[in-house]
Design brief:
The protein is mainly alpha-helical. It contains 17 helices and 3 strands. The protein has 2 domains: 201 residues, MFS general substrate transporter like domains (Growth Hormone, Chain: A); 186 residues, MFS general substrate transporter like domains (Growth Hormone, Chain: A, Up-down Bundle). A 3-stranded antiparallel sheet has the order 1-2-3, with helices on one face. α5 packs parallel to α7, α10 crosses α15 and α10 runs antiparallel to α16. About 8% of the residues have low confidence. This is MFS family permease.
Length: 436
């Protein structure tokens, strides 16, 4: 098996869906960055809702949106690719339109807007991963997924920075940002749809059913719920600890968040390529170890107190971000490698369900643990993440159990899938045998 050892920008763009699709991702991320971090402020300042009501509506929107994931998985398994990506963008246009039409003091329309925004935000990762998995294969696919994440983080950061500058305009500025976000989603959806990428539904294994279940991946999915907590550490756990425990300036929290974004943009692809020398499962387990060590580092840093605590937390946050980067570069890639082609969409949908669940419960879990002290917060996170890493490392793949050899697909599986692009031509995308 050939291992990806070099980063070739043009090849990455092609493997990620092509230039037009890359532009769609950038526009979508930029628009998301304009509004998503400030949706709570929109509910409070523009619609004059209470902070608790706004937060409940946002959380409910995310949780209820997860219900749509099985349908998204089935749609993907029917061969849809760019259409699902475009739909995930365009459904958020509906959410923004509802947001702009919501009168002040009305909570239910805001909850409906949060629901449509949540549906798009939950459906997009699975649809994007399926599209990339159709265009690129092997370690090139892993690098392409990493490039998509780096591009998205860059767009989110740029959008959030631009929105922060505009917030001085008050409620009027927030309404304008929402309108621009809707236009960005509309443009991105049109660009994604114009790619017109579709995969011919793959044939199920001999003797199996084309509508058979996706691989269970129980340990991987359960572990992912815990791993996902690392994504909310820079946004929730560290600001909470820095401000309430160490009584540090909010500037430290902002610096940690900016550093996290910059590191992800700069290192996501290089680190993913570097880790391609090892199996994806081993890398994902290693990511858990790195994250657990960083949590213990936070515990040690917060015990310093005084003037050293905040700088120490900021330094350890770099290690936490490295763990996040390793996790993000291997988790989705492992799912795409494990899932047979005929159930790829359902496997990615289940993975996104676990991701969404982790993101939904982590704020409440982090704040509850933090109220019991630093040892309870960081010790619990470290123990749970180490346990999850152990579960990932010891879980056996279905292909390994069936064939008795790691990396070999079950007998009778189709090794090629036809892909139709906007040119109407057909290309054969072969799935090589590779370590998981």
């Amino acid at each position: 098996m050939a291992i990806t050892t070099k980063i070739r920008p043009r090849a990455l763009v092609r493997a990620s869906g092509g230039p037009r699709y890359a532009v769609a991702l950038a526009v979508d991320a930029l628009g998301t960055g304009l509004l998503r971090p400030f949706l709570l402020l929109y509910g409070v300042l523009v619609l004059r809702l209470s902070a608790s009501a706004t937060g409940i509506a946002m959380t409910a929107g995310v949780v209820v949106a997860l219900v749509c994931m099985p349908a998204v998985g089935r749609w993907l398994d029917q061969g849809a690719r760019s259409t699902v990506v475009a739909a995930s963008m365009l459904v958020r246009v509906v959410g923004v339109a509802l947001l702009l039409a919501t009168p002040a003091g009305h909570g239910w329309p805001f909850a409906a807007a949060a629901l449509f925004l949540g549906i798009g935000n939950q459906a997009w990762p699975a649809a994007h991963a399926a599209l990339v998995a159709t265009v690129a294969h092997g370690r090139e696919r892993d690098a392409a997924l990493a490039a998509g994440r780096a591009l998205r983080n860059a767009g989110l950061g740029a959008g959030a920075l631009l929105a922060t500058v505009c917030l001085a305009g008050g409620p009027t500025a927030l309404r304008a940002l929402a309108a621009v976000t809707g236009l960005a989603y509309l443009a991105a959806g049109a660009l994604a749809w114009s790619v017109r990428l579709r995969a011919r539904p793959a044939i199920a294994p001999a003797g199996g059913r084309a509508d058979g279940p996706a691989p269970r991946m129980r340990a991987l999915l359960a572990a992912n719920v815990v791993y996902v907590f690392c994504l909310n550490v820079p946004e929730i756990a560290l600001p909470l600890v820095l401000v309430t425990r160490l009584h540090a300036s909010p500037v430290w929290s902002a610096a940690v968040f900016v550093a996290n974004t910059v590191l992800v943009v700069a290192l996501q692809v290089p680190v993913t390529v570097l880790m391609s020398r090892f199996s994806r499962r081993s890398v994902l387990a290693f990511a858990g170890v790195v994250l657990a060590v960083s949590y213990l580092g936070f515990l040690a840093a917060t015990s310093l107190g005084g003037g050293w605590g905040a700088p120490a937390v900021a330094l350890v946050s770099v290690l936490c971000t490295i763990g996040e980067i390793i996790y993000a570069g291997s988790a989705t890639a492992l799912v795409t490698a494990l899932a047979p082609a005929h159930v790829l969409g359902r496997a990615l949908a289940r993975f996104q369900l676990s991701t969404g669940l982790g993101l939904a419960v982590s704020p409440a879990a982090i704040t509850a643990l933090a109220s019991r002290g630093s040892a309870a917060l960081w010790g619990s996170l470290a123990a749970a993440t180490l346990l999850s890493a152990s579960a990932v490392a010891t879980e056996k793949d279905r292909a390994t159990r069936l064939s008795g050899h790691p990396g070999r697909t079950p007998s009778g599986c189709v090794s090629a899938a036809a892909v139709t692009t906007q040119t109407g031509q057909s290309a054969v995308a072969r799935q090589g045998v590779e370590p998981r």
